[in-house]
């Protein structure tokens, strides 16, 4: 005998508690992940299951007035649910709830089978919608946090908070990092940039500042060889930049120190146009001379400490020879006449200079850098004598 809707609703209300109890028991029997949960999370999942049964009764009472009443199921404990179980596990939960309802309700009224199927479809779509919204919100939050992290790297502020922020973003890189800066346009695909980094066993933090793309690079595999690979890694991202040149900052020990690499890369990017024949990808330390002339104090100190002082502490003859050689237009004969030595002596001293500082004064580009370093060193010595 067919039941009226009023009779079915009255019966559903009377057994809702029984259905909830049976559902929780079935969850415990069939879903291992539910059994392994702490009591507080089991309780949250149980609330969702109970809400699903209550929502079915409301939906059956008037499906048209509340077409999305199934979404109310997940408002019971949304944070606990999303933090406790995955979408796949949520669908398993829904399946158990629907099975219990179908087994019990269809016995009472066969015509309810179609209603149960329709409701199960609604609630499944609602579950997908809840997780999609959560993923979208998380993505937007991650984008804002990533932009904040890159801002902190560029400004050098909030160092003490940087570790926790990059951890929240899922930063997987280990050890040293380096910062890459170049021009980009609005069509740059940042997600593809991240995928490319992962293919190269690296992680990346990205930020767009005006028309500049800033990338903080780090390797996910812990290896001492990484320090020699940053330049090679940076070449993999050339197609994401639109400008003629990208500048790679020096390697630093960790992401907390990334501001030092960023500062050098940014300073190099500002002056790179001064080098007409600059390569497509250039290290910030290859622009020390231009950076120093533009007022970069770090570049000035680096040139003095890496070129002038090592020569001065090794031999005054080497310092004198380098100065004379550069001022003579890199002529061995003119340098030899000025120093009253044989040209072979000048040649020998130039070889020793190269051994000490790692720079070859006979090359036009390196000669320019060395000349800037000599001028800065002489000025620094003069200032030091005045202070004494």
TrEMBL record:
Chain ranges of the CdaR GGDEF-like domain: 155-267
Family annotation (Gene3D superfamilies): PucR C-terminal helix-turn-helix domain
InterPro entries listed in its UniProt record: CdaR-like_regulators (IPR051448), CdaR_GGDEF (IPR041522), PucR_C-HTH_dom (IPR025736), PucR_C-HTH_sf (IPR042070)
Domain of life (superkingdom): Bacteria
Domain PucR C-terminal helix-turn-helix: 318-374
Family, as annotated: Belongs to the CdaR family.
Protein name: PucR family transcriptional regulator
Source organism of the structure: Candidatus Rhodoluna planktonica
Species lineage: Bacteria, Bacillati, Actinomycetota, Actinomycetes, Micrococcales
């Amino acid at each position: 005998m067919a039941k009226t809707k009023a009779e079915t609703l009255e019966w559903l209300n009377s057994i809702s508690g029984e259905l909830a109890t049976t559902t929780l028991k079935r969850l415990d029997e069939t879903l291992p992940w539910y059994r392994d949960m702490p009591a507080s999370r089991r309780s949250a999942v149980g609330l969702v299951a109970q809400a699903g049964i209550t929502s079915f009764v409301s939906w059956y009472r008037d499906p048209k007035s509340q077409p999305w009443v199934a979404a109310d199921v997940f408002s019971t404990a949304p944070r606990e649910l999303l933090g406790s179980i995955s979408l796949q596990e949520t669908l398993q939960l829904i399946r158990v709830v629907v099975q219990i309802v179908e087994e019990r309700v269809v016995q009472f009224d066969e015509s309810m089978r179609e209603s149960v199927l329709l409701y199960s479809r609604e609630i499944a779509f609602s579950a997908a919608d809840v997780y999609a919204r959560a993923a979208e919100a998380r993505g937007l939050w991650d984008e804002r946090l990533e932009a904040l992290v890159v801002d902190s790297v560029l400004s050098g502020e909030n160092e003490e908070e940087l570790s926790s922020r990059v951890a929240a973003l899922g930063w997987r890189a280990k050890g040293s990092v380096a910062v890459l800066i170049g021009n980009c346009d609005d069509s740059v695909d940042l997600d593809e940039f991240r995928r490319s980094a992962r293919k190269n066993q690296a992680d990346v933090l990205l930020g767009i500042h005006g028309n500049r793309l800033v990338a903080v690079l780090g390797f996910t595999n812990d290896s001492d060889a990484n320090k020699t690979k940053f330049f090679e890694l940076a070449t993999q991202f050339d197609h994401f930049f639109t400008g003629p040149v990208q500048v790679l900052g020096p390697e630093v020990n960790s992401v907390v120190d990334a501001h030092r690499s960023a500062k050098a890369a940014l300073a190099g990017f500002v002056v790179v146009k001064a080098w007409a024949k600059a390569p497509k990808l250039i290290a910030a330390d290859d622009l020390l001379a231009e950076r120093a002339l533009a007022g970069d104090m770090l570049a000035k100190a680096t040139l003095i400490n890496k070129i002038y002082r090592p020569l001065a502490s090794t031999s005054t003859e080497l310092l004198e020879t380098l100065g004379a050689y550069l001022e003579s237009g890199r002529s061995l004969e003119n340098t030899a006449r000025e120093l009253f030595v044989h040209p072979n002596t000048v040649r020998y001293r130039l070889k020793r200079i190269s051994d000490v500082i790692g720079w070859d004064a006979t090359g036009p580009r390196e000669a320019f850098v060395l000349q800037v370093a000599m001028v800065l060193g002489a000025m620094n010595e003069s200032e030091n004598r005045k202070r004494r």
